[in-house]
Automatic annotation (TrEMBL):
This is ABC transporter ATP-binding protein. InterPro entries: AAA+_ATPase, ABC_transporter-like_ATP-bd, ABC_transporter-like_CS, ABC_transpr_LolD-like, MacB-like_ATP-bd, P-loop_NTPase. Keywords: ATP-binding, Nucleotide-binding, Transport. It comes from Amycolatopsis pigmentata. It comes from the Bacteria. It holds the Pfam family ABC_tran. GO terms for molecular function: ATP binding. Transmembrane segments: none annotated. Residues 20-238 form the ABC transporter domain.
């Protein structure tokens, strides 16, 4: 792990292009009377195969960073390139399609469907995308194996531990082979041993699947697993 400064801004496409590139992003929230600058001129470039952790105190802008990066929120200023396309220029339906194709999410609390088995959780994104073919089924089995859950693939969420549910959440995020993996506080509900386990798994899967991974976290103990660590303070990266 190294403590890095934000990557220098370079136009996507110039040199080794970052899969994820935020350029001078500002996000203002609230109304005219009570305006908050949640992100303040943030520039960030993450190449394929890099695991970036972003840490910072409550209210520093971590959720805002993920929302903007994932195309869930449009910045007030700046551009957000994912796999070479500026999300801020897309219409809503185009952004949704681009997000589905290129971005995987790992949520704070796995967010699994109660009625589905672990294997079915992994098949669901492929089903929704109309890509539930032999290749998707094979990939789901490989990912179940990779996250150590092949032996529990027929269990439903209530039959799994918190750490096991989180591992399924990670495998599900990878099933459609996203270019960018966004991870929101993945260890907040886990004990220390399981937290380290998930952080190691994220690092390993970033390498194996060559994703540009961004994890926001309060958990300073898991930062060692990341390639780079950046700090957010009052919406600014340093
Ligand atoms: N809808 C909103 N309207 C106005 N201000 C908002 C809104 N959502 C968030 N904020 C403010 O924007 C800033 C950044 O919030 P954000 O949720 O991104 O921080 P965070 O680092 O994720 O916090 P936490 O760790 O507590 O989840 C905070 O000052 C917050 O109060």
């Amino acid at each position: 792990m190294t403590h890095a400064t934000p990557a220098p801004a370079s136009a996507p496409g110039a040199g080794a292009p970052a899969v994820l590139h935020l350029s001078d992003v500002t996000l203002r929230l609230g109304n005219d009377e009570q305006q908050v600058t949640a992100l303040d001129h943030v520039t960030l470039a993450v190449p394929a195969g890099q695991f970036l952790a972003v840490t910072g105190p409550s209210g520093s802008g971590k959720s805002s960073l993920l929302a903007v990066t994932g195309g869930l929120q449009t910045p007030t200023e700046g551009t957000v390139h994912v796999a070479g396309v500026d999300l801020t220029t897309l219409k809503e339906h185009q952004r949704t399609a681009h997000r589905r194709r290129h971005i995987g999410y790992v949520f704070q609390h796995a967010n699994l469907m109660a009625s589905l088995t672990a294997r079915e959780q992994l098949l669901l994104p492929a089903h929704i995308a109309g890509r539930l073919d032999t290749a998707a089924r094979r990939r789901a089995e490989e990912l179940l194996e990779a996250v150590g859950m092949a032996g529990r693939a027929d269990r439903r969420p209530h039959q799994l531990s918190g750490g096991e549910r989180q591992r399924i959440g990670l495998a599900r995020a990878l099933v459609l082979a996203p270019d960018v993996l966004l991870v929101d506080e993945p260890t907040s509900a886990l004990d220390r041993a399981r937290a380290h386990d998930i952080a190691r798994l994220l690092a390993e899967q970033t390498r194996v699947h060559n994703t540009a991974t961004v994890m926001v976290t309060h958990d300073s103990e898991i930062l060692d697993a990341a390639d780079h660590v950046l700090n957010l303070r009052d919406g600014r990266l340093d």
